[in-house]
Amino acid sequence: MNSCLEAEHSPIFVNGPIIVGAGPSGLSVAACLSNRGVPSVILERTDCLASLWQKRTYDRLKLHLPKHFCELPLMKFPKNFPRYPSKQQFISYIESYAARFNIEPVFNQTVEKAEFDVVSGLWKVKTQDGVYTSKWLVVATGENAEPVVPDIPGLKNFTGPIVHTSAYKCGSEYANRKVLVVGCGNSGMEVCLDLCRYNALPHMVVRNPVHVLPRDFFGLSSFGIAMTLLKWFPLKLVDNLLMLLANSYLGNTDRLGLRRPKTGPIELKNVTGKTPVLDVGAISLIQSGQIRVTQAVKELTKKGAKFVDGQEMGFESIILATGYKSNVPDWLKVLKSYTNRYSS
Ligand SMILES: Cc1cc2nc3c(=O)[nH]c(=O)nc-3n(C[C@H](O)[C@H](O)[C@H](O)COP(=O)(O)OP(=O)(O)OC[C@H]3O[C@@H](n4cnc5c(N)ncnc54)[C@H](O)[C@@H]3O)c2cc1C
Ligand SMILES: *[C@@H]1O[C@H](CO)[C@@H](O)[C@H](O)[C@H]1NC(C)=O
Ligand SMILES: *[C@@H]1O[C@H](CO)[C@@H](O)[C@H](O)[C@H]1NC(C)=O
Ligand SMILES: *[C@@H]1O[C@H](CO)[C@@H](O)[C@H](O)[C@H]1NC(C)=O
């Protein structure tokens, strides 16, 4: 069946780069190329632009970083945007961006395989519908392509609903429910905050050390402060300063069950890719007891969880705030000498 299809449709030759993914990165590349008069084709698996933002984020989401750090090249955000634009504002900006540069991705095309053919000097990029070829391939599928679902013992035994944060929209259906939120990154913290606003009872699992910084210090963003200081001072010094400011602003988060890693927040991001949490209110709800912090889960049962400290608790729902991963290693076939870099 498949080989039949390929025989019928000869490869589509793209005069210019093939870009995989119509998120902010892919669109930026297409716009910059177009600005230099270079055509390109974007292949996108979903049926919309910036699908992570449109389909897989919660209603209340705002940009975590101040707007000037999130702007795409060649087009400013509208003047009336607040410092932290909402998800809807960001999406409308993305849509005007694509319109401005006449970018029309080919939708519903999931790239299943891409390999470089040394003989013809062309990339062959296979989707479920056919093959595209080009001299150049740009990978823009992001770090959030696939939800990570951890292998928690007993996960299948739990009888209530289990959703990943990529499918969480808002807390309205969780009112008065005991909810176990697994994970304490930005998504886990913000989902807990949202659940509280709908009178749910979130319990957040904190397994590993985590850096929490206030999103803003007296009207300045932590991220902005860090970026400015890094221009002048060594990384270790900036990290120490950030932790000093964070501790004076949020208090000792260790006492709340949120241990700080030994490595500073920016160094840790650089070395492991782990993003510090930028707090927008969850910490004060942990302090007031509305969000409970729990130990790691030992196993899930039909109606709840057993924790590593021996406690057992009932829950009605579970939300997995366990992050995302790239899908590039599954489809990009690269020369042997490059595989280590891509598969790690
Ligand atoms: C809750 C949340 C909040 C965030 N907040 C911020 C923020 O405030 N500021 C910030 O800078 N970043 C933020 N991020 C990070 C986010 O990764 C970036 O905002 C941005 O979306 C990255 O753009 P991208 O184009 O690299 O990837 P994505 O936006 O993930 O786009 C990748 C595209 O590739 C498509 N794709 C994936 N695999 C394939 C395939 N095999 N074939 C074809 N198409 C494929 C996807 O459908 C998607 O449309 C946030 C992320 C999350 C989850
Ligand atoms: C993509 O697929 C969806 C669902 O199958 C369909 O509704 C939509 O019309 C398709 N869009 C394009 C541009 O092919
Ligand atoms: C899940 O349920 C099965 C059948 O009831 C049981 O044998 C198994 O031990 C349970 N798993 C865990 C990790 O509790
Ligand atoms: C990030 O780490 C790399 C090596 O892992 C190092 O060369 C680089 O200087 C680091 N960047 C910063 C800002 O510390």
UniProtKB/TrEMBL annotation:
GO terms for molecular function: flavin adenine dinucleotide binding; indole-3-pyruvate monooxygenase activity; monooxygenase activity; NADP binding. InterPro entries: Auxin_biosynth/cation_transpt, FAD/NAD-bd_sf, Flavin_mOase. One of its GO terms (cellular component) is endoplasmic reticulum membrane. It catalyses: indole-3-pyruvate + NADPH + O2 + H(+) = (indol-3-yl)acetate + CO2 + NADP(+) + H2O. Pathway: Plant hormone metabolism; auxin biosynthesis. This is indole-3-pyruvate monooxygenase. Its cofactor is FAD. Keywords: Auxin biosynthesis, FAD, Flavoprotein, Monooxygenase, NADP, Oxidoreductase. GO terms for biological process: auxin biosynthetic process. Belongs to the FMO family. It is an enzyme of class 1 (oxidoreductase). Signal peptide: none annotated. The keyword Amino-acid biosynthesis does not apply. Its EC number is 1.14.13.168.
